[in-house]
Amino acid sequence: MEQVEYREEMMHKKCKQKYTYQLDYLKEFYEQYGRVGVPRFSFTWITDPSHDDINRLYHADSYLSAYFLQNKHLFDNSFIIIMSDHGMHYGAITETEVSSYCILRK
Predict the structure, then answer these.
(1) Cβ(88)–Cβ(54) under 8 Å?
(2) Which has the closest alpha carbon to 22: 1, 49, 3?
(3) Which of 12, 42, 44, 48 has the most beta carbons within 10 angstroms of its beta carbon?
């Protein structure tokens, strides 16, 4: 199967967002290396849910909530840090007052 066909199969026909594959991998990592008392570290950088369209973030919100609740046992005694970066740099959102705090205007 060619890469383009594979991507089409995995990303669209299965109805899963790209970031869910990263979270599946994170769960597998914690299950494999999750022995009690063994420190582990993961840096998972997910940008897909809102990078190109702020409206897609709403889909990720409920998924992330369910993900962490279902996998709470894997993250006990863990630090989870959720960060954001620069925000949207184009589109109608840049004309709002809120965007003036995070976007450098010319």
Answers:
(1) yes
(2) 49
(3) 48
CA angle 34, 20, 73 (to 5 degrees): 30
Q: What is the pLDDT of residues 42-95, one digit of tens each?
A: 888 887 777 666 667 777 888 889 999 999 988 887 888 877 666 666 677 777
Query: What integer pLDDT is reported at residue 62 of this predicted model?
Result: 85
Residue with tokens 């996998």: 71
Sketch the domain layout of the chain as residue ranges: 3-78
What is the per-residue DSSP string for the chain?
--HHHHHHIIIIIT---HHHHHHHHHHHHHHHS--TT----------TTTSS-GGGHHHHHHHHHHHHHHTHHHHTT--------S---SSGGGGSTGGGGTS---
Tell me the pTM.
0.64
Residues 31-44 pLDDT 10s: 888 776 777 888 88
